[in-house]
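INFO batch 0412 | record 1 of 1 | parsing
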Amino acid sequence: MKRGTENDALRDEIIFLEKSSKRNKAPIWRDIARILSASKRSRVEVNLGKLARVTKADDVIVVPGKLLGAGELKHKVTVAGWSAAKGVREKIAKAGGKMVSIRELAESHPEGKGVLVIR
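INFO prediction complete | emitting tokens
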């Protein structure tokens, strides 16, 4: 029986984050890899409304799961997530922010300084 995720892209992302954590001595990427490697049932889902409440302008956010589109975002943020519901990218762009992949965020912030994890 196969253990771990069967999604090859997700498995590659988890391995990349674990290596990035060791290489840069940044435990944030290891923690995100652990959250992503959890069962699908316990995966994180965050609404844009929650992001609007807990963030401020120019924050850098990572959602180790799916970003859902309920709510409105009124300020500029950079958001990284494993997946996003339809229309989320447009809502973030409309607020002046941008959505990137978790890998892109790990490459642009290798030590994880200033990155907030929203669960």
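INFO post-check: The chain has one domain: 8-117.
INFO record closed
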